[in-house]
Structure formats: structure tokens, C-alpha cells
């Protein structure tokens, strides 16, 4: 009597059979002049570069969260980190460096506007104030809605 044939696991079902081959991961090489997402889409997708957006789950379209000042600053910071990592391996990409400079300018300006409305975002930013204001209420996340106090 022959042994029954084992079927491989279906997609998304735990462990692979003992005879499963080893995986060989692949990450595409980034080229100079790669397309980029907007900062909000980059934050939602977890990468600035659409060519590196290789989702491993069924959800291939990222949700776009509501637009707020804090989220905008977070998105700009994310894009700066992504561009910095790219520039670590592509230091001669002038277009990417120009984009890095532009996003740095936007982040500084956005942080300045946000802090003028709500107070310092970081402990170090309190040094730019007339007095120490770090512990003053309310904290940015305590506003009922952006633009208004509790």
C-alpha cells in the first residue's frame, strides 16, 4: 500500500511541509531617479519608493489616515528618514539630495508653525522659548480637535 501524498499548505496557513525549499529573499535594487510617493502615501505604505512596496499580505492598498498637523510632521519625518537611507547608498544622486533638502525645509517650516500654535514638540525645542514651557498644559494630544484647546 502506498503512502498518501501530502499536500502543501495553502497560502497563509502556518507551517510549511518538511520538504519545503529554502526561500531566497529578493529586494529590488534602487536606481537613481526612482519614483516616489507623496509624504502621506509614503507613511501609509511604509516606504517612499513604490518600487520597494512589496506587500506580503492581501491588503495591497494602504489606508490614508485623516490629515492633521501632527500626522503631516510625522510623514515629513518618515520621508526624510527614507531619503537619508537611500542617500546612504546613493550619495551622488543630486535629485534625491535636492528632494531631501526640500523636505527638510518643509519639516522645519511645519514644525515651526505647529510649535507656534501648540508649544514645543520636543524637550530640546523648549530652549527656543522665552521660558521653560515643556510641562505646561495641555499637551498636543490633549486637544479635542486640532486648532482648539480643551
Number of helices: 3
Average pLDDT score: 76
User: What can be said about the biggest beta sheet?
Assistant: none
The outline comes out as elongated
Low-confidence stretches: none
Question: Summary?
Answer:
The protein is mostly helical and 150 residues long. It contains three helices and no strands.
Topology:
Elements: H1 39-45, H2 69-89, H3 94-118
Helix pairs in contact: 1-2, 2-3
Describe this protein's structure.
The radius of gyration is 23 Å and the shape is elongated. The protein is mainly alpha-helical and 150 residues long. It is built from three helices and no strands. It has helices spanning 39-45, 69-89, 94-118.
Question: Which structural traits does this protein have?
Answer:
3 helices; mainly alpha; single chain; 150 residues; elongated
Amino acid at each position: 500500500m502506498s503512502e498518501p501524498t501530502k499536500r502543501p499548505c495553502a497560502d497563509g496557513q502556518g507551517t510549511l511541509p518538511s520538504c519545503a525549499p529554502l526561500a531566497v529573499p529578493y529586494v529590488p535594487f534602487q536606481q537613481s531617479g526612482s519614483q516616489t510617493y507623496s509624504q502621506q502615501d509614503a507613511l501609509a505604505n511604509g516606504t517612499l519608493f513604490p518600487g520597494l512596496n512589496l506587500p506580503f499580505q492581501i491588503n495591497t492598498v494602504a489606508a490614508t489616515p485623516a490629515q492633521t498637523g501632527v500626522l503631516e510632521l510625522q510623514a515629513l519625518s518618515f520621508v526624510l528618514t527614507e531619503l537619508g537611507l537611500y542617500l546612504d547608498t546613493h550619495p551622488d544622486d543630486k535629485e534625491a539630495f535636492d528632494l531631501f533638502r526640500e523636505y527638510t525645509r518643509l519639516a522645519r517650516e511645519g514644525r515651526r508653525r505647529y510649535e507656534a500654535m501648540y508649544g514645543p514638540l520636543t524637550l530640546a525645542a523648549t530652549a527656543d522659548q522665552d521660558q521653560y514651557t515643556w510641562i505646561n498644559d495641555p499637551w498636543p494630544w490633549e486637544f479635542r480637535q486640532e486648532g482648539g484647546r480643551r
